[in-house]
Amino acid sequence: MTLLQVRHLAVRLRERTLVSDIDLDLASGESLALVGESGSGKSITARAILGILPPGLQASGKVMIDDILVDGKPELTRPLRGSVAAMLMQDPFTMLNPLRRIGPQLADSLPRAARRGEASRRDIAARLEEVGLEPAVAKRFPFQLSGGMRQRAALAASLMRNPKLFIADEPTTALDVTTQREVLRLIGRLKQERGMGFLLITHDLRVAFSVCDAVVVFYAGRIVEAGSAEKIRASSEHPYTQALLAAEPPVTGRAHVLHAVAGSVPRHDDVLNECAFAGRCQWATDACRSGSPVLREIRPGHFSACLLAGDLSARHVQFPQTGPSEAIERSVSQPVLRIEELSKTYRGTRTAAVSAVSLTVGQGEAVGVVGSSGSGKTTLARCVVGLESPSTGKITLVDSDVTSWTRLDAARRRELRRLVQMVFQDPYSSLNPARTIGATLREVLSAMGQPSDSKNVNDLLDLVQLPPSYALRRPTTLSGGERQRVAIARALAGRPSLLVCDEPVSALDVSVQAQILGLLNRLRAELDMSLLFIAHDLAVVRQVCDYVYVMQSGEVVESGLTAAILTDPRHGYTKALIASVPRDDRSWLDG
Amino acid sequence: MSAKLWMGFILRRLGASTAVVLILSFGIFGLLYIAPGSIVLTLLGTRPASRQTIAAVRAEYHLNEPFFLQYLHWLDNAVHGNLGTSIQSGGRVLPSIAARFPLTLEVVLYGSIIAVGAGIPLGIWAALRRGRGTDQVITAGAVAAVGAPSFAVGLLLLLVFAVDFNWFPVYGTGQGFFSTIWHLTLPALALGLASMGLIVRFTRAAMARELSQDYIVFAQARGLSRMQVTSYALRNSLVPVLTASGLILTSTLSATVMVETTFALPGLGTLLVNSVTFKDVPVVQAVALLLTLLITVINLLVDVTYALADPRILFTRQGE
Amino acid sequence: MSVAEVSVLRSSEARQARWPAPLVVVSLIIVVLGFTSAIFSSVIVPNAEQQNLLLGIQQPGWHHLLGTDELGRDVLSLLIAGSRTSVLGPLVIAIGSMVIGNIVGLLSGYFGGWVDSLAMRWVDVMFSLPALLVAIVVTGIAGSSYAVALIVLIVLFSPGDARVVRGAVLDQRHRPYIEAARLSNLSSKRIMTLHLWPNIAPIALANGFLDFAFALVSLASLSFLGLGVGPGSPDWGRTLSNNMGLLQSNAWAAAAPGIAIILMAAAMNVLGDWVYERLEARGLAQ
Fold first, then answer.
1. Tens digits of per-residue pLDDT, C91-123?
2. Chain A residues with CB-CB distance to B219 below 8 A
3. Chain C residues touching B202 at Cβ < 8 A
4. Measured between alpha carbons, how far is C73 from A388 in angstroms, rounded to an integer?
5. C58: which of A297, A539, C83, C254 is 20 to 30 A away, CA to CA?
6. Are C179 and A424 a contacting pair at CB < 8 A?
7. Which residue of A has its CA nearest to C177?
8. Percentage of chain A with pLDDT > 70?
């Protein structure tokens, strides 16, 4: 019985088309993943199906939910929402009504008669238990719950009327890395128990493979590949899917080359009469650029929109090959950075953000600090560069004591700033929107005592593989990956000995992530620079760092050579972190 | 929410309010010293300046003592209800204030009811129809209203409704409930119009902001009815709107001065203006003190209402 | 002293209106007219105050488009003459308030600590006072002069600007591009002026327009009550007050300045919104 049938769905914003030609099928009890990077149109598609597009967007095409024709029209979908189809959104921190207690919010989904009274209280308590929350949560406000708990509460709220079709939009992206697996497991279990049809939206192919039966890959507002998870994993028939798989950093080893695809996801209307991926594809032919390829069945149940499908299997490396390029021993003779027993407690809080952490980074070494949010890793990084000051402990940079940057005299501080610089997590707010790239770089160059002529600016841009013309552009015209490159270039202006990177790739799409990681590796080698790399993703850390410290709740719980720690973790938390990296099959969730 | 949290919150606010009132009372007292010319002459007003009268004034106002002690004397008197003697009339200040207070209160309340009663629904309507014709008209009207000074509006209202159409009386306050309402309608309208403009704009903005939040989309996605969704947005946006209304009340108090003058109503406003023009300092100080107290109380009530509606505030320290 | 969002009157949120182009153009015309007559009034109507007692009050006609007042003076000419104090005064107040408010807001938001606490206490106390009442009381008692009125209003309006700017600074301060600027050895002064301020300019400038509108109303209110400008001044508020008794004979004598005030304030309001929208669209920091 077809629960969901979509044919030729398109979504437009005034004259711009955002997605086109979307066909989907989902039967009761099945699970389908919509996979794509940001801007690929997967979320818009889901919202169009339910008729909850943002104002100004129009949907067209045929949509049938549970054999009822709705065509994405709000007035037709409204009666079905909640009772037949429901959606869980991405951000648990904004999804719930902040000024309403959990219990009443859940009760709001019920018909008016059932909202009050003892029976409804018991019902709500039962629902909360179903998602792993205690009944007492019903009396709390969302701001009193953690992200994971809020997500569970929202999950319970969306399932109140027992819908047959459940849509989850990136349900774990905003959550702590260790919570992700639990929430996905919970969703999987609920799906099983209730026999729901499940539509999962995610940017992570590995998550898609481990949770869903079938996968649909989105690119630039179109479907480029569709089929069962097994088939696609075994032998993908579209260069983009392969590129995505190849760009995922493996946690099992360091990739020789992380396959990075130059450029970024284009908008639907920018690639109209050609294959959307042709501009970035290494096998693109003229035929690929002369017309938009149609999605066709390559093998039974396996569709691809690539003209070369069927011929590709021999041409590529499916997964990054790993090899012994990792360090097997460590000798730190002259540490560039030495942290001794550093602790930091913020004013007004009782628990320490960082507690007695000791750490060293050698000359030319890349050291990783891994942990989930709240582990103290970011605080640590900020203390090293001077954006925070430690409560106790000592930080030595090359030969100088920089424990308290504010107490250094201005001249000394200026000198030392040339030794260490920082790259931040969010590329979209890392650059001053009011200034051109060139102006920003010139300013930094002159502040670092370097000549600020255009030759130097171009050299910096060249270091991060950006053309000189970028100097005249403003940040808003650049993509996330490009902005991060500029941020790195800025940090390199004074040729620092140590580059502190605070989650430099977490906010980037996978294919872009690979570019930046490759860039950092290259820069480290070329400039003989040390790296202090902060991340929550062990797989990412493995691609860059030889040595890693694992932090939990402010303390270092384990440290050692990356390869050693990842193949033989000792501490429970490290093991949990490793387990939380998605593997690409069912075993990840079951194990 | 726990009683202890509330207690702490209210005590903190009370403490802060008292501090503000004291600081301001100090400033109000100091008004005496900014009058040009000699203080004694100011205090004498139109009375002849002979050695006796000067000595009497010096004694009555403790002018021989240091500044701070004078302030304390004045404060002490004020707290005990002795607000001094009017230089102009020679009568005691407190009774004359008490006599005029009810009228001012009536006009202010009437005007606020109009402002809030019409402003909030209009703002909500504009937000629900945002971007469309209704919204544009309402918002344009609100902008014009905000910029319009109450005396100009009062004048235009007088012109149109009292002089041309003769629907309302031009002057007078009326006896009895209904007559009073009829007489005070034009002043109340003049008073309320500017506030109404602000309330409309603010309500619309708050409501529109809530309607674009994620929790509204999620509510729609899980099947809440249109009424339920609108009431989510409404309830959450009333918090900033209530606050705004409370604060608009305080700016209405100043507009009252203008409106009373335009319509020649014998209220606190005209009293203030007359005594300021005449440099009748004790009266000015008394009225100013009263208004400060009133405003502080209103602000306090606004804070409490805000905390009632948004419990998150109880957990934060003030104003962050 | 309120926990709640005190900057109601200046909340940038209340500013999200998208005005249709014709309205913006009309507002621009009104403002240009207002400023032109303000600056050039002595050239346009050099004899505005000329009395013609024989003429007395006249209804609008060809010679006197808005009629005359009881002293035979042309109402339209007086209106133009009065624009000088009525329009330039608020300009001075808006600029003064913006300068003080922006400086205090920047310093307070950027440095935090005791500077911030002190500044915010000052703002809180000032916000407890209704500006107009304070202006009336102080101007009245200190001897009503135009300069005193301007100074008092500047002092009363600047906390509003300070609060708005401080809010915007706090918004931007922790963003990576500012932190990176700090790490790049740039001086605080440079960061505040070249990095922070351009990104908060939309709000700061739009607020300046709002300041002007409120200053216009406040100043007119003061002169209506006989405070601020001198007795013979053709200031709009003053004229309105003087001519209230003429409602029956030539209503325009009083209505014209009233309408002028309303139009000018509304026009500046609309322009303020438009400026904000334009600057924000240039992609400055959200």
1. 999 999 999 999 999 999 999 888 998 898 888
2. 97, 108
3. 8, 11, 13-14
4. 70
5. C83
6. yes
7. A430
8. 96
Contact A138, A102 (CB under 8 A): yes
Chains that touch C (3 or more CB pairs under 8 A): A, B
pLDDT at C14: 44
Q: CA torsion, points A275, A276, A280, A282, in degrees to nearest 10?
A: -30
Cβ <8 Å between A154 and B218: yes
Q: Which positions ≥6 away from B251 have C-beta within 8 Å? A: B195, C9, C130, C132
Is pLDDT of A112 > 80?
no
The half-sphere exposure of A325 on its side-chain side, counting CA atoms within 13 A, is 14
CA max distance for chain A: 76
Contact, A189 vs A220, CB < 8 A?
no
Q: Determine the Cα–Cα distance for residues A302 and A236; give it in Å rounded to an integer.
A: 9
Residue A542 and residue A517 in contact, taking contact as beta carbons nearer than 8 Å: no
Residue from the list C5, C13, C259 with its beta carbon closest to the beta carbon of B209: C13
Q: In angstroms, how far is CA C182 from the centroid of its own chain?
A: 35
Q: Could you give the ipTM of this predicted complex?
A: 0.82
Q: SS3 for B109?
A: helix
Structure tokens at A235: 């032998």
Question: How far, rounded to the nearest angstrom, does the alpha carbon of residue B122 sit from its chain's CA centroid?
Answer: 22
Q: Give yes or no for residue A148 having a pLDDT over 50.
A: yes
Please tell me the distance from the alpha carbon of residue A486 to that of residue A318, in angstroms, as a whole number.
31
A256: its two tokens? 């020789």
**Which other chains touch chain A, taking contact as 3+ CB pairs less than 8 Å apart?**
B, C
Q: Would you list the DSSP string of C166-216?
A: HHHHHHHHTSHHHHHHHHTT--HHHIIIIIIHHHHHHHHHHHHHHHHHHHH
Comparing C-alpha atoms, which of A257, A211, A263, A217 is closest to residue A236? A217
Q: Name the phi and psi angles at C246, rounded to 5.
A: -95, 15
- C-alpha distances out from residue B291 to B16, B243, B267, C126, Å: 17, 19, 13, 14
Burial status of residue C161 (CB atoms within 10 A of its CB: 0-12, 13-18, 19 or more): buried
Q: Does the beta carbon of A96 lie under 8 angstroms from any beta carbon of chain B?
A: yes
Task: Please check the confidence at residue A540 and state whether its pLDDT lies above 50.
Answer: yes
| DSSP per-residue string spanning A464-510 | TT--GGGGG--GGGS-HHHHHHHHHHHHHTT--SEEEEESTTTTS-H
Range list of H helices, A25-97: 42-50, 74-77, 92-95
pTM: 0.83
- H or E segment at A6? strand A2-13
What does chain C look like in DSSP terms, one character per residue?
--SS--GGGG-GGGG-----HHHHHHHHHHHHHHHHHHHHHHHH-TTTT---TTT--B-S-SSSTT-B-TT--BHHHHHHHHHHHHHHHHHHHHHHHHHHHHHHHHHHHHH-HHHHHHHHHHHHHHHTS-HHHHHHHHHHHT---HHHHHHHHHHHHHHHHHHHHHHHHHHHHTSHHHHHHHHTT--HHHIIIIIIHHHHHHHHHHHHHHHHHHHHHHHHHHHHTT-SS-TT---HHHHHHHGGGGTTT-THHHHHHHHHHHHHHHHHHHHHHHHHHHHHHTT---
Nearest to A91 among B214, B221, B222 (CB): B214
The whole-angstrom distance between B303's CA and the closest CA on chain C is 6
Report CB contact under 8 Å: C265, B147.
yes
Pairing of strands A392-397, A555-561: unpaired
Q: Label the pairing between strands A498-502 and A420-423.
A: parallel
Q: How many helices (H) and strands (E) does chain B have?
A: 12, 0
Q: What three-state secondary structure class fits A259?
A: coil
The kind and range of the H/E element at B253 are helix B226-263
Q: How crowded is residue A115: how many other Cβ atoms within 10 Å of its Cβ? A: 14
- Cβ atoms of A254 and A325 within 8 Å: the answer is yes
